[in-house]
């Protein structure tokens, strides 16, 4: 049976992978900007955006597999899933290589970067193909609720790709070396996921191929809704850079991205936390375990709200120092401040709606989730294209903010509360007011750190900020998981079991010293 300890492992390993990625970005991004320049950084951002957009060829099959592998048809569904992912990876590889030459004309890439952009885009296509194939094995692991395995594997990918990329840049290979390192790390990640899936399915074959029509229809029916939702999310979060690259000079992509880059870490951590709920909702909702489902929804919403609040407070307070560290004097900060002001509420709203999205998908409300997400994404794209021509990158940010906040708060969270029987007042008390003290504490802490480090090096401020962020996460998770007395007793018993041997050892040590 899953308990607070198991759920916490999934949350903490996911959050840890994002924290590591953030720390490595603190090193990597200034290196790219300083050694390669703003235009090369903008090309790097475009390549990453295309990479994430390319993963839309997942077609929502991963989410459908996680949900359906809990049924009695899992063997034939596995074979169909393996066939689809293998074919999709080969299709993307062939199609992507044909489209690589179009990148220069679409995104105003200067002639000086022509060869670099072609090699970079080719490597991006290879990484997309590898990642798509690995999704099949990722779905198997998550269907067994092995979130920590998947998260640790992702951490390994981040570490290897970043270290190889940094080494390549300093060795003079630039973006080509950087993305070559990502492809190598992606191959290692895929191999490890295959190994994990093999351990979980030791008695059953992994590499079967099948196009069973009945199973295919079932899988595609479920995946269609997830695909539409994923498409809307990617449009809402990644199309902005491509719109800017199409209408504005290439360097504006870097200016826009640098503001959102700081806040992306909050979204990524919250995504890893909320991801824990997906397979649990898929298991509990069909058997009518409404109380556990409701309790988990509130817990995840509360933790995500606290993460967003703590993270936003710290990032806004330390933004000038962080910006100077990342931008290395190559980007004017004043141009990014309006983008930051718009990105803050957009990030908070996006984080808060994640548990609601998972609940709607697993409770048979896929059509509603799909339609509302597609409408929001369509309005986002339309407003961004219109407003960019009047207000530049600020118009793009506004075009993203307005439809997202309306969809998240009005058309996702509120309907889920109604379905679960949670009143607006109860939701506010449980999710918002319960985090009041942590918010106040972190605000005071951040203010004191700002004063205390005003004359100290930036590294000291960053270390204190990361420490405070870790404390905030720990306190919030404790407050969020404490309702179940059994779970709380389990945690206290483990702490006591670890504490008693330490006190005994300390007593023997001090006794021995006094006798000596």
Strand content: under 5%
How confident overall, as mean pLDDT? Answer: 76
Q: What series of H and E elements makes up the topology?
A: HHHHHHHHHHHHHHHHHHHHH
Structural class comes to mainly alpha
Largest sheet: none
Q: Rg from C-alpha positions?
A: 24 Å
Instruction: Report the principal-axis shape.
Output: globular
Number of strands: 0
Helix content: over 70%
Oligomer: single chain
Number of contiguous helices: 21
Unreliable residue stretches? 453-461, 478-484, 512-516
Head-to-tail CA distance between termini: 51 Å
Secondary structure layout plus pairing:
Elements: H1 4-36, H2 38-54, H3 61-68, H4 74-99, H5 103-106, H6 114-143, H7 147-170, H8 174-200, H9 213-247, H10 251-275, H11 277-284, H12 290-317, H13 319-327, H14 337-352, H15 354-362, H16 366-391, H17 393-420, H18 424-432, H19 436-452, H20 458-481, H21 485-515
Helix pairs in contact: 1-2, 1-7, 1-10, 2-6, 2-9, 2-10, 3-6, 3-9, 4-6, 6-8, 7-8, 9-10, 9-16, 9-17, 10-12, 10-14, 11-12, 11-15, 12-14, 12-15, 12-18, 12-19, 12-20, 14-17, 15-16, 15-17, 16-17, 19-20
Give a description of the structure.
- The protein is mostly helical and 516 residues long.
- Helix content is 84%, strand content 0%.
- The chain contains 21 helices and no strands.
- The N and C termini lie far apart (51 Å).
